[in-house]
Amino acid sequence: MIRQGVRRLSTVSNALLLREWIQPASQATKLADLKFETLAITESLSGNSTGGNSGVGADGVLNVRLHRPTKLNAFDMQMWNELETLFDAIEHTPEVRAVVIRGEGRGFSSGMDLNVFASMQEVMMSIPCEARKREALLSVIARFQKIISAPEKCRVPVIAAVHGSCIGGAVDFITACDIRLCDTSAEFSVKEIDLAIVADIGTLQRLPNLVGEQQAKELAYTGRSFFGAEAEKIGLVLKTHVDAPTLFNQATTLAKTIASKSPLTVRGVKKVVQYQRDHSTEDSLAQVQLWNSAMLYSNDLAAAMTAIATKKPPQFEN
Ligand SMILES: CC/C=C\C=C\CC(=O)SCCNC(=O)CCNC(=O)[C@H](O)C(C)(C)COP(=O)(O)OP(=O)(O)OC[C@H]1O[C@@H](n2cnc3c(N)ncnc32)[C@H](O)[C@@H]1OP(=O)(O)O
């Protein structure tokens, strides 16, 4: 009797834990339960925000703001940690179908908080062994890279809506997003060269794919500022809008459109497009064969067919 009871208890908890792996809903990482200081989750993308966290809207769009407006949304350690937590929580919140991210106040972000560089040096200097010091620095750079890569790894599309300054680490961040939109006030700079740093958290890896190697090198060698119109011309952003309200409106419309599509299919498109970037056409065609032979016959296909036949919008599960 006792052994049977033990077996049943462990079967139940195994199933529970497995279900969390498949569709995680752990309270600790649910978006609505998180409190952020340097990020704000807002009902809409427009208007000013005083912060707060209202969770994801019924439309499946998560509106995120970098929220240190008095410091031009520079990434301090709190913000790095919160971005990591945010993207982890998005994976654990199935209702999120698309993410839009913007900056609060005067711009998107002025990149790494310069105080972090000073703190990094202080922490590294406190490690007496040269090898361990370098090992520690390597692991710190790897952690920054992981956080910057989070939008690319995210299971849903992430749209960056850039107004005002977008400097250094902020360029690293937006190049890992699926789609970048901006307004005419957007001012970009691959600023690391002016700090005598080889940009090391993503820009030099992703920017050449977006704008071409020669153009990426010119921007990274000079650190010069360039504005929305040029960013669109060279292919860094998809579109430059006339002003910030229009930008936020258009970003929201795009996110809502994406969120209305089959989430399973959107996830597939993201994976397939990402795979083709890093593989040959032949390998990528083979990958999509596998994807669709596994995923084509979904409830979403049936819902889409019914929607076409009945001329009613389809309803998809997350
Ligand atoms: C392992 C490495 C990992 C990551 C590496 C990332 C690399 C980078 O991100 S390099 C780029 C670093 N960023 C910068 O160099 C930008 C510095 N800021 C500026 O040059 C200017 O602030 C500006 C963006 C040109 C805007 O100028 P302005 O409009 O005149 O505003 P300010 O008065 O200068 O700024 C308002 C307020 O914000 C503070 N602030 C702005 N940016 C930063 C920042 N990056 N770090 C820390 N603080 C910043 C600025 O000091 C002001 O604060 P006050 O308290 O009001 O003085």
3D structure, described in words:
GO terms for molecular function: delta(3,5)-delta(2,4)-dienoyl-CoA isomerase activity. Strand 2 (61-66), helix 2 (77-91) and strand 3 form a beta-alpha-beta unit. The mean pLDDT is 93. The radius of gyration is 22 Å and the shape is globular. Helix content is 52%, strand content 12%. It has 318 residues and is of the alpha/beta class. The protein has two domains: 27-260, 2-enoyl-CoA Hydratase, Chain A, domain 1 (Alpha-Beta Complex), CATH 3.90.226.10; 262-317, Orthogonal Bundle (Lyase 2-enoyl-coa Hydratase, Chain  A, domain 2), CATH 1.10.12.10. The strands form two sheets. Strands 1-2-3-4-6-9 form a six-stranded mixed sheet, with helices on both faces. A three-stranded mixed sheet has the order 5-7-8. The protein starts with a helix and ends in an 8-residue tail after the last helix. Bound molecules: ligand LTDHYY67. Ligand LTDHYY67 binds at residues 71-72, 74, 110-115, 141, 144, 165, 167-169, 191-192, 195, 200-201.
The backbone outline, from C-alpha atoms, is: globular
CATH class of the largest domain: Alpha Beta
Number of strands: 9
Please tell me the CATH architecture of the largest domain by its name: Alpha-Beta Complex
Give the spatial strand order of the biggest sheet: 1-2-3-4-6-9
Overall mean confidence score, pLDDT: 93
Q: What string, H for helix and E for strand, traces the elements in order? A: HEEHEHHHEEHEEHHEHEHHHH
Q: How is the main sheet built?
A: 6 strands, mixed
Listed once per kind, the bound small molecules are: ligand LTDHYY67
Assign a percent range to the helix content. Answer: 40-55%
**Low-confidence spans:** none
CATH topology tier name of the largest domain:
2-enoyl-CoA Hydratase, Chain A, domain 1
The number of distinct helices, counting runs of at least 4 residues, comes to: 13
Radius of gyration: 22 Å
Pathway: Lipid metabolism; fatty acid beta-oxidation
Protein name: Delta(3,5)-Delta(2,4)-dienoyl-CoA isomerase
GO molecular function: delta(3,5)-delta(2,4)-dienoyl-CoA isomerase activity
GO cellular component, one term: peroxisome
